[in-house]
Design brief:
Elements (H helix, E strand, L loop, with lengths): L6 E3 L8 E4 H6 L3 E6 L23 H15 L6 E3 L8 E3 L21 E4 L5 E6 L3 E7 L4 E7 L1 H5 L2 H13 L7 E4 L9 E2 L1 H12 L18 E3 L5 E3 L1 H11 L7 E3 L24 E7 L6
Parallel strand pairs: 4-7, 5-6, 10-14
Antiparallel strand pairs: 1-2, 2-3, 3-15, 6-9, 7-15, 8-9, 8-10, 11-13, 12-13
Bound molecules: zinc ion (ZN).
Zinc ion binds next to loops.
Length: 295
């Protein structure tokens, strides 16, 4: 049987094309989660058109309009949009009620220096930004806790997935085996060529090592998610490497959804930093809990 793509286009009757995690929509009706495409916003080339990133040189007014469109279709108020300044690190930030809305209009009040956000506050829409990097989503249904993590090769090598799982465990008592995770559209193993130094750091992350003592270390069997490419280079499947890190951290393989979309192959749908040589927009991943309805 063909594997199904878990990220499915939402039926919103609007121009903006947004993807939702179909199995979660049915399984966890209290959770809203998904990923934007580049289609249906107001930004002009090369940011055309649903750019969510304020840091890429696009017109800020256009980005704010796009963010309002995205929040509304995701089922949130614009005031719920909460985001951080991503730095390709592995800091996990615990979002509380007082953080709601940070960074939505302006980078100056975004949560600083965080590539992963965790919350159990209903009505907070966590958002983060992508053009090839891997969006990671986490849900712990019993404690009604959700998380987002941004994993490029650096975040993957720093095992940000494991860091996020650790915070969920320490702060919310989420047993890893009762967590659900999703891995969204990103650059695929088809398109992501890297040099030996990056490959050795990813191999170390796969092996569960904190850091590579010698960045030029030799390794024989790169492992799942890494293979030799042309001219001494390597090819990495960052989605698969993050899946392996999640499984090693205790999430059940059957509880992990993984997108088949490659952002570099599909620039008709997505922004790709590599394919578009750095001059492009950003997709948005979002997750949040519906606000509880008062009687
Ligand atoms: Zn590709």
């Amino acid at each position: 049987m063909m594997e199904m793509e878990p990220f499915i286009r939402m039926e919103n009757g609007q121009a903006a094309a947004m993807l939702t995690i179909e199995s979660w929509r049915r399984q966890f009706p209290e959770i809203r989660a998904g990923f934007t495409t580049r289609i249906g916003g107001v930004s002009e080339a090369p940011y055309d058109s649903l750019n969510g990133g304020l840091h890429v040189g696009d017109d800020a007014g256009h980005v704010r309009t796009n963010r309002r469109i995205i929040a509304s279709l995701a089922g949130f108020a614009f005031e719920d949009w909460t985001c951080a300044e991503q730095v390709h690190g592995s800091n996990v930030y615990l979002v509380r009620a007082g953080d709601r809305g940070k960074g939505r209009n302006d980078r100056s009040d975004a949560i600083p220096d965080a590539d992963a956000l965790v919350t159990n506050v209903p009505g907070v829409m966590l958002a983060s930004f992508y053009a090839d990097c891997v969006p990671l989503y986490f849900v712990h249904p019993a404690s009604r806790t959700v998380a987002l993590a941004h994993a490029g090769w650096k975040g993957t090598a720093l095992r940000i997935a494991e860091e996020t799982i650790r915070v969920l465990q320490d702060q919310f008592d989420c047993a890893p085996e009762s967590l659900y995770a999703a891995i969204g559209p990103s650059i695929g193993g088809c398109c992501y060529e890297i040099d030996g130094e990056v490959a050795s750091r990813l191999a170390a992350a796969l092996a569960g090592e904190a850091a590579v003592a010698d960045s030029k270390m030799e390794w024989e069997n790169p492992g799942v998610g890494l293979k030799a490419g042309n001219d001494g280079r390597y090819v990495a499947d960052l989605k698969e490497i993050n899946r392996q890190i999640m499984i090693k951290a205790g999430i059940q393989p059957t509880s992990i959804e993984i997108s088949r979309y490659c952002t570099s192959c599909r620039t008709d749908l997505f922004y790709s930093h590599r394919k578009e040589k750095g001059k492009t927009g950003r997709m948005v991943s979002w997750i949040g809990l519906k606000e509880e309805v008062a009687d």
